[in-house]
Amino acid sequence: MDWLEKRVPPLMVAGAFALLMALLAQPVPPIGVAQAWRLVMALVLLLVGLGICLAGVASFRLAQTTVNPLAPEQATALVQSGIYRYTRNPMYLGFALVLLAWAALLAAPLSLLGVAGFVLYLDRLQIAPEERALAELFGSEYAGYCQRVRRWL
């Protein structure tokens, strides 16, 4: 599956998994959580996810480096400030939280498989090749950063 590495933009991957989640939710009755609670949970997850994602984009823009996930070798700076002090992949973490919000709205336990699939897909086919490119670009500085900050949380 190496041929899939960095081929599909992560936002499109998230969209595909969101569709899969909706399909998985169809044959299953919703769990017995009141709709109001599901909406509140979904809204909180959505806002936190979008906030984390946008904080990652803003940090990249401030550092004047690329946000293109298909070309990490074009990075001109190793961003370690802001949200990047807590997670090496805030944009992807944000996408995962948005998918969790979608799962809360769907209220179907099977839809959580979509979130897990998204995380596994990105971890293997997007993040791993990005990390190889960043290690090549930034060497020991990146290795130290990886030791200090977790990949997801």
Automatic annotation (TrEMBL):
Top class in the EC scheme: transferase
Transmembrane residue ranges: 37-60, 92-122
Protein name: Isoprenylcysteine carboxylmethyltransferase family protein
A cellular component annotation (GO) from this entry: endomembrane system
Membrane topology: Multi-pass membrane protein
A Pfam cross-reference name: PEMT
One GO BP annotation of this record: methylation
Protein's UniProt keywords contain Lyase: no
EC number: 2.1.1.100, 2.1.1.334
